[in-house]
Amino acid sequence: MTLKDYVIRRSIVIVPTFFLITIIIFTLIHVAPGDPVTAMTAGRPVDERIKEMLRRDYGLDQPIPVQYLLWLNKTLHGDLGYSYVSSETVWDMISVRIPLTVELMLAAELVSIAIAVILGVIAAVKHNSIIDAICSLGALVGYSTPDFWLALMLILVFSVSMGWLPSSGFHTTALTFASPLDGLFDHLKYLLLPTIALVCGWTAYLFRIVRSSMLEVLSQDYVVTARAKGLKERVVIYKHALRNALLPVITYLGYSIGFLLGGAAVIEATFNWPGLGQLMVETADKKDYPALMGLSIIIAIMVLVANLIADIAYAAVDPRIKYD
């Protein structure tokens, strides 16, 4: 089976999955307590007739299946609708925030992979040593540490106590930089703490996968044969063992989009990083249905595409794997 045939075959599964996801999300959003009109008028005395008129204008008086079909028809025509709160198009709200979320996720992904692979290989090669115990204990602590607590501790230590790094935002406002490089360094200072907060849990997760995969590979016959031939230990580990040990990691990288986006919602809100995660928190609090559904679609597409790319990369790395 060719790559094109494989993509078409996977798409046949992905499309109904996507529609099922939208149905579930749309239903959960609409059956949750409260509605956009109540959220918009909270704390203010508004006549119930005006509220009912607003609900009719937004189509909230229709049954949920009818609302979903109306929304789906507009979405399939490329119209994600308008925000109930800001009145701007949902796509405009999302498009300006996608680059910042992608930047944060990409930075966390690259750093996590680098640290997890290096420490995972070392821990596997030094199995049952003090180094292995320290790395495994560190991974356990990192995996068990809540993202929001770590983010608050980072702010408390590096922003409040030491004053080394900014605690919120993504760049210094009302400041003219002498060169683009100065602006880049300023932006990286804001990026550092959110990245560390995301890296901690994901690195610990990847480390455990790399370590267990390396331990399994190092006991395989071809590794024993490579050593028996007199190959250098570095060649055996990095050329023969590591490549096969990374195959499970590639699979989990497809799931990382959902994992990192889930963490990004908390991290971005904590650091006031204006990405998709922060927007999701804001729109959920205000019951902004169109914005919530637009975000859900973008995130669902990102996760599905990432899993498809991971499947293709898996076969590209290992020639023994065929599309069937």
Query: Strand content of the residues, in percent?
Result: under 5%
Number of helices: 14
CATH C-level class of the largest domain is Mainly Alpha
What is the mean predicted local confidence, pLDDT? Answer: 81
Oligomer description = single chain
Task: Using the alpha-carbon principal axes, give the shape.
Answer: globular
| Residue windows where pLDDT falls under 50 for at least 5 positions | none
- What structural class do you assign from the helix and strand content? mainly alpha
CATH superfamily of the largest domain: MetI-like
- The value of Rg in angstroms is 24 Å
The biggest beta sheet, please?
none
Number of strands: 0
Share of helical residues = over 70%
Tell me the CATH topology of the largest domain.
MetI-like fold
End-to-end separation in angstroms reads 6 Å
